[in-house]
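User: Can you recover a sequence for this backbone? Please restate the input before giving your answer.

Assistant: Of course. Working from this structure:
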């Protein structure tokens, strides 16, 4: 089968379209014919060696964790899906090797759910990692309908999912973003605040008594400021996905997990029209390096996907 692969850490030019053996399908797995694979910053960061201290890597590496496709075969004693089922998922395995930038991927059923009916394969492939990250961040701090959440970097890929999910859960959302993204945040249901110097004062104007929880989707040593904005006695209701020192600062340091129930919930929101996916770039598999370069600019508001 055709796949994108690399054999050493490096920049996007390490990627090559190559022929590799079809993956084996173990018990508890299905073989998915990939229709689209989502591109996330972690893909190129991992290939640069950024996560070498915590993730086992086996070369050659086929990158990618997000997928949407059709079940081609099922492993022994695997009854969760049948051939022909449309699925999507966050196919993160125990080590980095056989990813989703390929014509076929073997996927443990715990990493999959049925594809949202109302979405294209390209849209569905844009949800898993970012959508799960946003949803699991919200649930980690136990937010309830009627409470107020502050989302730092609310217009990004994860942030925009976070806003939509929070609104669907009945939360009031205050989101930081550049001025050019304020109308976009309003369209998603958030109250925008200009980030940068003085943003804490601007948040206090909207929530003088403080917010119930804060989610950091950007980093940049912002945890102390976010904690000062959370209501007294609730400083533990703070999550960061971008600051590796978050736990040492008393915040939740979230590493997203594959979860069928969470994916099913996100799919239901999408089918109900409460979760939209803006695919800004859909590129052929052979242009994976270009997709990484676009992702690395940090200027893409919508999702980047590879079509297979």
């Amino acid at each position: 089968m055709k796949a994108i692969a690399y054999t050493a850490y490096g920049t996007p030019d390490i990627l090559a379209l190559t022929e590799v053996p079809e993956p084996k399908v173990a018990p508890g797995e299905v073989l998915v014919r990939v229709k689209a694979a989502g591109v996330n910053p972690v893909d190129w960061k991992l290939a640069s060696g950024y996560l070498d201290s915590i993730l086992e890597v086996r070369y050659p590496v086929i990158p990618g964790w997000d997928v949407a496709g059709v079940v081609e075969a099922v492993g022994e004693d695997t009854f969760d899906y049948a051939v022909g089922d449309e699925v999507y998922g966050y196919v993160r395995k125990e080590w980095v090797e056989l990813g989703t930038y390929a014509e076929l991927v073997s996927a443990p059923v715990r990493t999959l759910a049925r594809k949202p009916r109302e979405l294209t394969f390209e849209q569905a492939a844009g949800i898993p990692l970012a959508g799960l990250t946003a949803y699991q961040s919200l649930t980690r701090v136990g937010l309830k309908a009627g409470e107020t959440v502050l989302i730092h970097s609310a217009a990004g890929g994860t942030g925009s999912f976070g806003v939509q999910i929070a609104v669907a859960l009945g939360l009031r959302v205050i989101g930081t973003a550049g001025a050019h993204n304020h109308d976009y945040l309003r369209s998603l249901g958030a109250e925008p605040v200009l980030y940068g110097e003085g943003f804490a004062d601007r948040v206090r104007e909207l929530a003088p008594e403080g917010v119930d929880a804060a989610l950091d989707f950007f980093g940049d040593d912002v945890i102390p400021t976010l904690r000062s904005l959370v209501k007294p006695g609730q400083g533990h209701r703070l999550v960061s996905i971008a600051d590796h020192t978050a736990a040492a600062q008393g915040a939740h340091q979230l590493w997203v997990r594959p979860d069928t129930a969470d994916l099913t919930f996100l799919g239901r929101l999408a089918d109900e029209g409460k979760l939209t996916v803006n695919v800004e770039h859909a590129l052929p598999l052979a242009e994976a390096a270009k997709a990484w370069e676009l992702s690395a600019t940090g200027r893409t508001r919508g999702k980047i996907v590879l079509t297979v």
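That completes the design. The chain has two domains: 2-127+277-307, 130-253.
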